[in-house]
Amino acid sequence: MNSSVLAARELRWNTRMHLVQTFACPLLSLTLRAPSTLRVEPAFLDAFSRLCSRLEDEFASQGLAMSLLHTSLDAEGPARHYGAEDALAAKKLSIKFEEETLGGALLDIDFLDEKARPISRRELGLPPRACMVCGTRPAAVCIKGSIHTNDVTCRAFRDLMQQCLNLEDSAQRIARYAVQSLLFEVSVTPKPGLVDRHSAGAHSDMDYYTFLSSTAALAPYFLTAARLGQDGAISTDSLLPRLRPFGIAAEAQMNKATGGVNTHKGLIFSLGILCIAAGRMREVTSTEELCELAAQIARPALLDDSADSHGQQVMLRHGVSGARGEAAEGFPNVRRALPILESALSKGESVDRAGVKTLLFLMSELHDTNVLYRAGAPGLELVQESAARLLAAGCPEDELNQFCAELRQKGISPGGSADMLALCFFLHLIRQPSSA
Fold first, then answer.
1. CA angle 24–27–33, rounded 5-degree value
2. 310 pLDDT exceeds 90?
3. What is the pLDDT of residues 263-286, one digit of tens each?
4. Buried (b) or exposed (e) across 78-95, using 16+ Cβ within 10 A?
5. Of the candidates 24, 279, 362, 417, which lies 20 to 30 Å from 131 by C-alpha distance?
6. What string of DSSP letters covers 268-306?
7. How many other β-carbons are positioned within 10 Å of the β-carbon of residue 144?
């Protein structure tokens, strides 16, 4: 072992002692578990950074506090040191992450309590970590006995690193499609009663740029949802409750970005469900399968009567199920509208034109809770009949503009239909990797 590695190890230990004494709290230290020759390679550093972020998300989802105190990169590779409140709970969660998360085996997660005493697996009644290569013997036994050649060991760690990076790339693609779908939806122009590039529609508290700000704020949430779906350690039935705290945080970020204006609250739920379902499928080749899985994930939401949204009030007053019902049924209206969008695009029509046609179809079919909340049953009837008539007539520009003016004057905004249009764009994009 060369002197630089020995010096790095000594410095790392001294750093840990200093942090515990300075902050008087338990310390969680993350380092890269890999042969020393691999620890400073860019791909392994990238995997380490992404795994640290995933662990931070895992702690947040469980309500466990961890605060980053110090980072370093030396001859021993990268390290991150976090302060923790509950050392025992943090240790148990970290062990679970190491063993059950794809790529988690690349992390060494060590603990010191507030008195700088190590907390070991043995103290928790757990066996030592298994060898990364064979998975049968304790890692210490294989290392001490040089059971595996260096080439075999490095190959095993490279394979796991690549799986980790590929998994993350998939999550990033899903999140990118989610963001793209929101941008496409708000950009379709003209949209009756809705915000578009040229008009605020029936709204006085938001405009096109409000939606851009909201979309940017929600991008990390869609990535988190996709990552949750990819985590095989989480059962499908547990995905919705695991997503919920992130959805609440995303809503807070949306409100911060928009000054308290509700631009995308419905889509935080609906598009979050589709992102988590897409993450679970890894590769989406069938819209039907994706929507059926999303329905399975979303159904428990129908049992939650604690929500106090406009959609919930309308559901109680008019007996419609709104966004939660649409998701729990596998987005039937979105699936019916999708062929309209894709047919128009395949014929070379612009995104604007294809989007308007799809939106009018949705407006003609959907029991839009936004319309019911703002204008009641008569308003919904007006929207549905006018949209159907326009669609049947081929969306003549002058009549479309008149309809936009009418809804603007009456203060009617078919926001539920707009949400469904965004979901149509997502389902269209998710099956077309070349569109990224």
1. 160
2. no
3. 999 999 999 999 999 999 978 889
4. bbbbbbbeebeebbebbb
5. 279
6. HHHHHHHHHHHHHHSS---HHHHHHHHHHHHGGGGG---
7. 9
